[in-house]
UniProtKB/TrEMBL annotation, chain A:
Source domain of life: Bacteria
Single GO MF descriptor: ligase activity
InterPro entries: ACP-like_sf (IPR036736), DltC (IPR003230), PP-bd_ACP (IPR009081)
Ranges where the Carrier domain occurs: 1-78
Name by which UniProt lists this protein: D-alanyl carrier protein
NCBIfam families in alphabetical order: dltC, PRK05087.1
Post-translational modification: 4'-phosphopantetheine is transferred from CoA to a specific serine of apo-DCP.
Organism: Bombilactobacillus thymidiniphilus
Automatic annotation (TrEMBL), chain B:
Protein name per the record: Teichoic acid D-alanyltransferase
Keywords, sorted A to Z: Acyltransferase, Cell membrane, Membrane, Transferase, Transmembrane, Transmembrane helix
Domain of life: Bacteria
EC number annotated for this UniProt entry: 2.3.1.-
Pfam families given in the database record: MBOAT (PF03062)
Record localization: Cell membrane
Membrane topology classification: Multi-pass membrane protein
Function: O-acyltransferase that catalyzes D-alanylation of both teichoic acid and lipoteichoic acid (LTA). D-alanylation of LTA plays an important role in modulating the properties of the cell wall in Gram-positive bacteria, influencing the net charge of the cell wall. Catalyzes D-alanylation from DltC carrier protein.
Main location: membrane
InterPro entries in the cross-refs: Ac/AlaTfrase_AlgI/DltB (IPR024194), DltB (IPR024024), MB_O-acyltransferase (IPR051085), MBOAT_fam (IPR004299)
Ranges in a coiled coil: none
Record-stated family: Belongs to the membrane-bound acyltransferase family.
């Protein structure tokens, strides 16, 4: 499975919002879809499903706030 | 000699203006004269701790040396490939780093309200910075350490007394950099605007609420306390709102000075307040009130606790884990304010409010179709949040302690 699909699946699971794939540039923090708890779950899911480690302090919110940005970050970390 | 507390009187601002002329000219022309910045930083820090505050000054020097050593040694440990990332070494580093603050916080409790001799203005805020650094070093997020930069970050004089609490990597990015001319002109404009807004907040509104009206309302509430159950009089309600306004304008005013002054130095210290009184719920409130403190607790306490608890499967329910996280966060925040019953109740109250708010948000999500959402519901939410917050500030103020027990 590619990064985009995996990330979108995780996000849809965590937020309970299946329309996420239609709003790839909407801020998940501003809309309240992703709170701190869901953010931590996202990091754990990324660790389990894609085997990438993102420590909490590496999570710069302005770089992780939309589905597209999250996909870019994850892609970057997978290829690092 | 002379002692000038930060942002308190006209002398301070005049001195700031004089000291900043060369600095602003330099930055405007693309030079950051770091030796000059260090010189005036030392001067202003010296003025805070001079004359009758000399003992505090020595406490600060001792503190700075100890913290620098702790962070340096821990950084060495973490970057040396021979060692793995042992939790207990990390715990010892954190323990040593907060030791002086813990002693300072506990001394008044154990010594009848007397201050510790190792206390100094700003110790809490400096400790937030170093603890944050140690955590990021453990995570491998901080990859470079230099004594000079550490000192610049820790002792950055515009924010030394009461924040806002910056982060090491963010600060260093600004410090290593010289803003280009057009963005620096923007920073000057914003900085000056913040400083003038700060004057309005702190010296006009804060003065009206805090110095002119609050003592009178408190006197009235005290005079009537035996005529009402629990002393709850109209005057007490007045104290509640008046204190809340004072607390906001005084601290937001200070924060605006600190941020404005930083901007003039080309350092974008994060803002502390974002219109907290229009919050629609308590979670929204904590994203707008004393933000650098609440984000510090969110990132370094709450999220780390939740991460650990989820991974270890401490509880099955993630709601339980989130709620425990809130309790931990707000109890710690309460205790940090001081070891008095009203700070602890304040912390517990906010933890309870966050837990209740989460439950409400879950309920709302489930029943979205049946719940109205319009301008009226929004205004009611703001009104309700505002009043609950003011009530929590009445507890926080400690006035109830005087009203009931003194």
């Amino acid at each position: 499975m590619d990064t985009k699909e995996t990330v979108l699946n995780i996000l849809a699971d965590l937020t309970g919002d299946t329309t996420i794939q239609n709003n790839l540039d909407e801020s998940l923090f501003d809309s309240g879809l992703l709170d701190s708890m869901a953010t931590v779950q996202l990091l754990l899911e990324l660790q389990q499903q894609l085997d990438i480690d993102v420590p909490v302090s590496e999570l710069e919110r302005t770089e992780w706030d939309t589905p597209n940005k999250i996909i870019t970050q994850v892609d970057h970390l997978r290829n690092a | 000699m002379l002692n000038i507390q930060p942002y308190q009187n006209p002398q301070y601002f005049l001195l700031l203006l004089l000291a900043f002329i060369p600095l602003v000219i330099g930055l405007y022309n693309g030079h950051r004269w770091r030796w000059y910045e260090s010189l005036i930083s030392l001067l202003f820090i010296f003025l805070i701790f001079d004359a009758d505050k000399t003992i505090q000054g020595f406490a600060l020097i001792g503190y700075t040396i100890t913290q620098a050593l702790i962070v340096k040694i821990y950084f060495h440990y973490r970057t040396n490939k021979r060692f793995n990332n042992n939790f207990w070494i990390f715990a010892v580093a954190i323990g040593l780093s907060i030791l002086q603050l813990v002693v300072v916080k506990l001394t008044p409790l154990l010594a009848n309200g007397k201050d510790s001799i190792i206390a100094f203005l700003g110790i809490s805020y400096l400790t937030f910075k170093t603890v944050g650094m140690i955590i990021e070093i453990r995570d491998g997020a901080i990859k470079e350490f230099s004594f000079i930069k550490f000192l610049q970050f820790l002792l950055f004089f515009p924010t030394i007394s009461s924040g806002p609490i910056d982060r090491y990597r963010r600060f260093i990015k600004d410090y290593d950099n010289v803003p280009d001319q057009s963005s620096y002109i923007g920073l000057i404009g914003q900085g000056v605007h913040y400083i003038f807004l700060g004057l309005l907040y702190k010296f006009i509104l804060g003065y009206l609420f805090g110095t002119l009206w609050l003592p009178e309302l408190e006197q009235m509430a005290m005079a009537q306390r035996h005529n009402h159950p629990f002393g709850i009089s109209l005057a007490l309600v007045g104290v509640m709102y008046c204190y809340s306004m004072y607390l906001f304008f005084d601290f937001a005013g200070y924060s605006l000075f600190a941020v404005g002054t930083s901007y003039l130095m080309g350092i974008k210290t994060p803002m502390n307040f974002n219109l907290p009184f229009i919050s629609q719920n308590i979670k929204d409130f904590w994203n707008r009130w004393h933000m650098t403190l609440s984000f510090w607790f969110r990132d370094y306490v709450y999220m780390r606790f939740v991460f650990w608890a989820l991974k270890k499967k401490l509880f099955k329910s993630r709601i339980t884990i989130a709620n425990l996280g809130y309790l931990l966060l707000f109890l710690l925040m309460g205790l940090w304010h001081g070891e008095y019953w009203y700070y602890i109740i304040y912390g517990l109250l906010h933890a309870g409010l966050m837990i209740g708010n989460d439950a409400w948000l879950r309920f709302k999500k489930k029943h979205q179709k049946y719940l109205p959402s319009n301008r009226f519901t929004k205004l009611s939410a703001i009104f309700l949040t505002f009043n609950i917050v003011c009530f929590s500030f009445l507890i926080f103020s400690g006035f109830l302690d005087t009203l009931w027990f003194k």
